[in-house]
Design goal:
- The chain has a domain of about 70 residues: Thrombin, subunit H, CATH 2.40.10.
- The chain is about 15% helix and about 30% strand.
- The strands form ten sheets. Strands 2, 5, 11, 12, 13, 14, 15, 16, 17 and 18 form a ten-stranded mixed sheet that branches.
- It is globular, with a radius of gyration of 31 Å.
- The two termini are about 60 Å apart.
- Keywords: GTPase activation.
- InterPro entries: CNH_dom (IPR001180), Rap/Ran-GAP_sf (IPR035974), Rap/Ran_GAP_dom (IPR000331), Rap1_Ran_GAP (IPR050989).
Length: about 1000
Amino acid sequence: MAALVRPGYDPATLAARDLNLHNIQRRRASSAISSSNDLISRRGVFSRRHYGSVELLPQIEADGSELNGRRFRVENGESLGEKEEMFGSPSTPVLENPEYQTRWYFKYFLGKLHQNYVSVDCDKVPVFLSVVLTDANDQCVSQYRAILWRKTGAQKISVPHTPNKPMTVKQILSNFPNVEKMEKGPKEIFAPEIQKDLLLLEEQEGSVNFKFGVLYTKPQQVTDDEMFSNEEGSPEFHRFVKLLGDEVKLKGWKKYRGGLDVKGDMTGKHSVYTIYEGHEIMFHVSTMLPYSKDNRQQVERKRHIGNDIVNIVFLDGGPSQMGTFNPSFIKSQFTHVFALVTHDAEADAWRLAVYSEESVPLFGPSLPCPPVFTNDDEFREFLLVKMINGEKAAFNTPTFAQKRERTLDMLIKDLHSEHMPDGRTTMLNRRAFSDVLPDAPRGVSGSASSRRKEETRQVEFVRFGQGLKVDTIERGDAPTSLATSGLFKRAPWEPMCFYPDFSQEVVCGDSWGDSRLVVATEQGVYIVNNDEHSGGPGLSQRTIMDKTVIVRQLHVVEAHGILLFRTDKMGRDNKLMHVFRLSDFEQGEQGAAPPLQLPLGRSEIKEHRLERTRGCHLYAVSRPGGSHLRVVVAIKNKLLVMQWRHSAAWTAWCPASDTDTVEGFQNLRDITVAESPTLITLVDSTLGGSAGGADNYICVGYRHQFDLVGERSGEVVKLHAVEGSRSHLVAAVDLYEDEEPELLLCYNHTCHFQKLSEARTTTEFDFHWNSVPCAIVCAFPYIIAFTQDSMEIRLVINGNLVQTMVMPKLALITSKNDIFFATTAPEFFPNRTECLHVDHKDNRDTMSPPASPHTSSPEARPFRLYRIPLHVLSGMVAPVDRRCPTPSPEPPASGCASNCPSGSGSPAAATTPNSSSKGGLGVPGVGGGGAGGGIGAGPSGSSGSSSLLVDPYRQLSRSCSSSPTPHQPSGSFLASKTTN
């Protein structure tokens, strides 16, 4: 042990650390399992095959002849991707692009004071621009919302508003993707009637309410003539129809009618109707529509069901009938999605399959495997969400998109000729947007009569818009209620308050175990604790470094028990990285003091400097789970690649021997790149476990491009160029698609998928955010963007929006395990500050953090730290580990044998008794808290570890596969109060 004593550490300090070593080991092992579980769900292998396989289905004619058929994507639980699905529970049903979020003009503009502009783009095509300043969700967060109306559709963005700094038209336009300049400067339209025209443009996005066909079929029926001629359904069919909604009388019906006659019973006397999440749904049930004995084709029934985009086909006769259906049975070029439903009487369960025309984009929720539902309410909700999402997705097929573009092109050209006649004089780009907001019209100069005239115009503008809004609601063309006849459920992304009253704005931070955060602020570095659920003392915070230590990046590496952070320039001290043992800040039993006297100042951290990192402005660490911890440090245009001398598996088996700090890092190589990086991400190879395996990569972002750098070779390859004059790089998230490394490159408003193996760039799967993110978190099946004042949640598989939550002064802290963030948004639970404990015990009273403000003043609102559990987002049900070890050089020789657990001379030997354990679950030290690899591997990453790895041929899906969201404890956000 004497050789392990570092300068400045006396025997008493080491003894104090040893007293707590068993607690550290226990927490580290627990964290390893949890981290492994969560990281696989967030960064695991995904495949778009989990949404079914595309198959060419033959077209069968009435005479039995077979013609070339249509290609459909088939989701029935039998495709390769679906069979690889690891969860047997159904996906969480989530509406994609919900109308009450995407219908921006109706919700945020209409009936409120806003501005509308007309212009001509560089292609000489007319466009319209609408801008409003809103106080989103009563959270005291002002945002500019802007809609750019083009023939290809409406583009929507949010831009933060800075008080006393109004934005110009050009500044707003510059935030839109691929909009550099206009051929003609925007001209403002003052006529109130423009609101009616823009509302018409928005209605082209698709219907707010839905009509779905429901077709009853008997066994051996293979033509739509036979299916439409069924006069009565079976008891199972009637049970299914009753499950869908309520039977209503059509004559005199006042609500959404879905094209049915409500005056003279011309389309039947009754139908089935329901409301789901504010959407009215009318079902065209084949057995309820008029039947004619003299009309073999049953034209009245086909006229409605054949013109529905989504049809439900109920197959009588049980699950054996599933394989007998072919979409070609239904002679309709309009129907793009077929949902096949049958009832298994023996199991009293519903079975579902979905056929989508191949041009329909992917939509969720993905079907469970097997696609069987035993709970009626869960099945109803899943089916309704699947059908609503399916119709929205179908609107993006060429059939509908081309028609919509032609309509929009015609409407926009007509509006342009109406509002921009030759010689018309109007106000050009002279006013700031705030000039037409409810404040006094500062931009209007002239006499008092001119100001009164402008005020009168504003009043008339708002009055006209409010009248339009009422008329739209009365027509049933707008969502009027969020009432639902389904089960009440909490959204899986609902945050829970971790710490209710923190006085400082968080600069950076990381999680430590399950109940602690290490956060850096301008006033110092703190450990924030919340262990009341584990029987601990509850809420507390401790100062571990004072305000003389300016920390800009921070990582807690629990696999090796170290705290790694980067400081800014402090006086004469240059920018440097520092390494501490976590045990230096660990309190002992009964609250005994940690080994070091806290808080530490600038002078106390000097001996922990990594001198090789002098002048660094950025660094990145390898994600947990690799065989070795690797760090890449940017010093101007040089990349310094370092590695921790011990592997994660070695440390897990011999934690008492891994006590290094700065001396634990080995310098591997220096790499020179073209410019000073603004973004670094380490990308692990999937083949790194084998000898001579593939090289790891470093994704480097600077200015207008992303490059890929070989970690071993140092070769630099251009990966992706950012077009346009504006370039704000946000993140490069490493993930895997069909076992192939892939990067999600995020810049400006855009997210771009880029495979490492493909030289060409495809934008097929690109999607855009409403606001420019500050940080990105990928939490399968969701991707979350954190902006200055909002959290935007989308699906990774298709980029569809599912939720926006507005929160002032929002800042992501960490997403290593669970997602932690800070905001001044209020918590939605009773005040618990009476159990709050702040430890100020130190000899530097001037360095203590100021008391948390307990005041109602909006300017002095405390920050609240929130947590989103990843297992709830991803639906993980068991700890699984499958990551491949990272290729690494042999670590230095170590005297591990004497410190390993009794009876095991080496980590590799110790794995032998557990080689039959499924996936290595429950084995101590599962990869040191990472998403994979090196489980039980020896110091050299030997092949002996393969006996503990999960079958490499079974991969984890990124699909929306999670059980219905469990009830969250009190203290979580209420979804109804945060929906934007």
